[in-house]
């Protein structure tokens, strides 16, 4: 997808800048003339939506940090002061807290789109792995941020999650003590979490730059999974074609975002977190935010010791390993899927398994919100097994036995076939859209 740059500076200042720091050339080549597949649908707009949400979270987070006090005796009241006394503080706080949920909604759609269309397959393995790293950093940032209001769920969520590291053999207790900054979740813990929560979004931004760079090296995947063969016929310039589509997708997403932020700002949160943290009172049901619930269900699914030939894995360590393995397995997806066909649209059998996998993930999320008791623990174990079976059994075997549908010869042929099916008139030059230089 890369090619020689056709950017030509027109002014003296532009020429002077282009020979010293060619930022205008970079912007032109990356966001104006860059060729994208002509058949991208609106599911491909979520990359732009995520970029917008990252900037929004950083901006609102910096403003909130100006008024927040990272001290166990003052943190809760500083949040209340932001809500009541800071000009538009309530709006900034609700945009930030609901923005985290919107961020995860967008990233889950983005990930499932990648799974459906095979965006993790060669030559985009590094692009996919960078996406998994971004996802891990997002999860860490969201968890750290949820602790900062220092309500009841914040405190006890921190206690539960940090205690998971104590299951690590030999070094576990030392790691927990380091995270706490002492022997319990207290003021040093809050200071550590605030510092890391402020730092990690900028790390995410750095990895996003690498992610976009990798995307521009390999080019975008598309709903057919067929690579670009003829740049003139198979692609259109990023601007205005992709930018306008991204703008429409962002507008509709912002409507959803604003509805939560202004009309249901506390709908996705927990009421108990509006009670100041009390280390002497344990909430009856400790649950994380909704976007962590599937992994929380996997964590709690292992309620028994795993007896191996050489050693025994305690149930607590087994749950922790299963939870982290559920995320780590995503990074190995390019090599677990043995099918040569990228897009699920041309894999009728895999399409059924894919939607079954979506149901499994939704069920795990529901089970994560339930108490750790029968029958939810048994169901969690069953759906955890189904989750891993999709990656470790279904994808490797399907590539060997599935017979995919006939792929189109090119992206342009797929577009023309779709146009004919819709009944629209097709001319000989219909496959070629106007091109800009580059």
Can you walk me through this structure?
The protein is an all-alpha fold. The chain folds into two domains: 32-227 and 234-269, Cytochrome Bc1 Complex, Chain C (Up-down Bundle); 287-417, no CATH class. It contains 17 helices and four strands. The strands form two sheets. It has a two-stranded antiparallel ribbon. Strands 3-4 form a two-stranded antiparallel sheet. Helix 3 runs antiparallel to helix 9 and helix 5 (89-117) crosses helix 11 (238-263). The longest helix has 32 residues, at 187-218. The N and C termini lie close together (11 Å). Mean pLDDT is 92; it is low at 428-438.
Topology of helices and strands:
Blueprint: H1 12-18, H2 23-31, E1 35-37, H3 46-65, H4 75-84, H5 89-117, H6 125-147, H7 152-163, H8 172-180, H9 187-218, H10 231-234, E2 235-237, H11 238-263, H12 293-301, E3 306-307, E4 312-313, H13 315-331, H14 333-336, H15 348-368, H16 376-401, H17 411-422
Antiparallel strand pairs: 1-2, 3-4
Helix pairs in contact: 3-5, 3-9, 3-11, 4-5, 5-11, 6-7, 6-9, 6-13, 12-13, 12-15, 12-16, 15-16
């Amino acid at each position: 997808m890369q090619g020689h740059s056709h950017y030509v500076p027109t002014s003296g200042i532009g020429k002077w800048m282009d020979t010293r720091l060619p930022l205008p050339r970079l912007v032109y080549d990356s966001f104006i003339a860059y060729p994208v597949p002509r058949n991208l649908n609106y599911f491909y707009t979520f990359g732009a939506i995520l970029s917008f949400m990252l900037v929004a979270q950083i901006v609102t987070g910096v403003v909130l940090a100006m008024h927040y006090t990272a001290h166990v005796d003052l943190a809760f009241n500083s949040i209340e002061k932001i809500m009541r006394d800071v000009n538009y503080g309530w709006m900034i706080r609700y945009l930030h807290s609901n923005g985290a949920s919107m961020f995860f909604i967008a990233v889950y759609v983005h990930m499932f789109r990648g799974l459906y269309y095979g965006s993790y397959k060669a030559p985009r393995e590094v692009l996919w792995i960078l996406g998994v790293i971004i996802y891990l950093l997002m999860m860490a940032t969201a968890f750290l941020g949820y602790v900062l209001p220092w309500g009841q769920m914040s405190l006890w969520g921190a206690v539960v999650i940090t205690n998971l590291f104590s299951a690590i053999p030999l070094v576990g207790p030392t790691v927990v003590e380091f995270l706490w900054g002492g022997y319990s979740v207290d003021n040093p813990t809050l200071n550590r979490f605030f510092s890391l929560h402020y730092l990690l979004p900028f790390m995410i931004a750095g990895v996003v730059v690498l992610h976009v760079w990798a995307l521009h090296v390999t080019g975008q995947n598309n709903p057919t999974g067929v690579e670009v063969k003829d740049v003139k016929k198979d692609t259109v310039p990023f601007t205005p074609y992709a930018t306008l589509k991204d703008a429409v997708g962002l507008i509709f997403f912002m409507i959803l975002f604003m509805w939560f932020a202004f009309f249901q700002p506390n709908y996705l949160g927990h009421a108990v977190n509006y009670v100041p943290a009390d280390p002497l009172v344990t909430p009856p049901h400790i649950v994380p935010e909704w976007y962590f619930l599937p992994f929380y269900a996997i964590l709690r699914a292992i309620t028994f010791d795993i007896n191996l030939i050489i050693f025994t894995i305690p149930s607590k360590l087994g749950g922790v390993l299963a939870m982290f393995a559920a995320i780590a397995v995503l990074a190995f997806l390019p090599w677990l899927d043995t099918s040569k066909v990228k897009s699920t649209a041309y894999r009728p059998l895999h399409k059924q398994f894919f939607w079954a996998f979506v149901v499994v993930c939704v069920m795990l999320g529901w089970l994560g919100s339930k108490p750790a008791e029968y029958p939810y623990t048994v169901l969690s174990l069953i759906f955890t097994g189904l989750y891993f079976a999709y990656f470790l059994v279904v994808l490797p075997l399907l590539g060997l036995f599935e017979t995919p549908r006939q792929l189109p010869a090119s992206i342009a042929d797929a577009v023309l076939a779709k146009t004919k099916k819709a009944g629209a008139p097709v001319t000989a030059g219909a496959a070629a859209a106007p091109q800009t230089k580059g």
